Amino acid sequence: MEFTRLYLIRHGQVANHHEYRYNGHFDVDITPTGVEQMNRLSDFLANEPIKSMYSSDLQRAVKGARIIGNRLGLNPVMVNSLREIHLGRWEGLTREEAAALYPEEADFSFKDLATSKVQGGESLVDLRARVVPALSEIIERHRGEAICILAHGGVNRVILSEVLGLDIRNFFRIEQDYGCLNVIEYYNDGMQVVKLLNGGPNQDFSINKIY
Predict the structure, then answer these.
(1) Domains contained in the chain, number
(2) Of these residues, 11, 25, 86, 152, which one is catalytic?
(3) Are 202 and 34 in contact (CB under 8 A)?
(4) Is position 113 within any domain?
(5) Residue range(s) defining the domain that contains residue 179
(6) 71 belongs to a structural domain
(7) Residues 2, 25, 36, 84: which is the catalytic one?
(8) What 8-state DSSP symbol labels residue 103?
(9) Which residues, listed in sequence order, are joined to residue 150 by a DSSP beta bridge?
(10) Is 142 designated active site?
(11) Any domain includes 92
């Protein structure tokens, strides 16, 4: 049976990762560690029959896509709809900074993000409404091929939730580490299968990390 294989990647470690900031559309670069994560993925994917590559147009995704695309001989196509969830006026801030600036939202909980949102931002429903159509268009364009998308933790979780048939409220139950790889197969009869989740050459599933 013919299928389309999607190699779905999260961008590498971001420059402000240690500050626990809400990046969203905030355009932050990746670290040297993030570059190395992308290089390892490049080597890992070098022998896969990937025909096309897409990414978010934010630099943390673009940089990784260009590293991988260069190794695979592909020119990544930037897609605005694959950007991370927009976090409104909390963009670029830590939770402490956001609470101080906007005390009326100090009690906002991201567990309610499925239907709620920070002022000026998106809910998970909003994120799904722009990501899923963009993905469907890409899959349809490349029926029977292997393709690669380099995006963000939120975008990847939406895509994986769709394939797994999960309610969007279960969004945060799916982990997406920096530089992780997911593999999904889309069959022509409508069946969709996750072959790999949060895996790839950058993962360290040691006991110390898990516990």
Answers:
(1) 1
(2) 11
(3) no
(4) no
(5) 3-17+34-83+125-210
(6) yes
(7) 84
(8) G
(9) 9, 55
(10) no
(11) no
